[in-house]
């Protein structure tokens, strides 16, 4: 299989460098009520990622929705060991940003192209929010590129 790689520049909001598998949603995520902080599993009924775990994944989604308490839920997940490795948003919001600061979760947004369209679940990502870039590695050719 041929491996493809693309590097995208973005805005690093919470510094850090992580590598891992992407988990991608085109839908906003609410961490309060939408994600079980004890397990890291998305439990919002009808969400396209319902039943998937965010734990140890690079979570890619447009932005959050719902309560400002979601920031505390991200912090709680960090303390429990169920947090995502990092987060990539189309455009981040204060709720996600505050949760990432509290939970020490690298956060990147405003990429050159919409990450929810360029990245697919299972891609291997290097998220460098310190220098503001994302490397996407894919083992198969996709019609996205």
Q: Brief description of this entry?
A:
The protein has 4 helices and 10 strands. α2 packs parallel to α3.
Topology:
Layout: E1 4-9, E2 11-14, E3 17-24, H1 31-34, E4 35-36, E5 41-42, E6 58-61, H2 70-80, E7 86-89, H3 94-103, E8 107-109, H4 115-118, E9 124-128, E10 133-138
Parallel strand pairs: 3-6, 6-7, 7-8
Antiparallel strand pairs: 1-10, 2-8, 3-9, 4-5, 9-10
Helix pairs in contact: 2-3
- Helices and strands: which structural class? alpha/beta
Poorly predicted ranges: none
Order of strands across the widest beta sheet?
1-10-9-3-6-7-8-2
User: Secondary-structure element order, as H and E?
Assistant: EEEHEEEHEHEHEE
Tell me about this structure:
The protein has helices spanning 31-34, 70-80, 94-103, 115-118; strands spanning 4-9, 11-14, 17-24, 35-36, 41-42, 58-61, 86-89, 107-109, 124-128, 133-138. With 145 residues, it is of the alpha/beta class. The protein has a single domain (4-138), classed as Glucose Oxidase, domain 1, CATH 3.50.30.10. β6 (58-61), α2 (70-80) and β7 (86-89) form a beta-alpha-beta unit. α2 (70-80) runs parallel beside α3 (94-103).
Features:
30% strand, 20% helix, eight-stranded mixed beta sheet, two-stranded antiparallel sheet
């Amino acid at each position: 299989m041929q491996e493809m790689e693309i590097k995208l520049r973005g805005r690093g909001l919470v510094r850090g460098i992580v590598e891992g598998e992407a988990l991608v949603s085109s839908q906003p995520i609410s961490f309060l009520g939408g994600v079980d902080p004890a397990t890291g599993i998305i439990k919002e009924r009808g969400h396209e990622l319902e039943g998937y775990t965010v734990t140890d994944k690079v979570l890619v989604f447009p932005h959050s929705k719902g309560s400002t308490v979601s920031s505390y839920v991200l912090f709680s997940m960090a303390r429990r060991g169920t947090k995502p490795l990092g987060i990539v948003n189309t455009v981040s919001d204060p709720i996600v940003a505050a949760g990432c600061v509290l939970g020490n979760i690298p956060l990147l947004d405003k990429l050159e192209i919409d990450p929810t369209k360029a990245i697919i679940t299972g891609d291997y990502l290097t998220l460098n929010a310190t220098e503001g870039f994302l490397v996407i590695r894919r083992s198969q050719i996709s019609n996205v590129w």
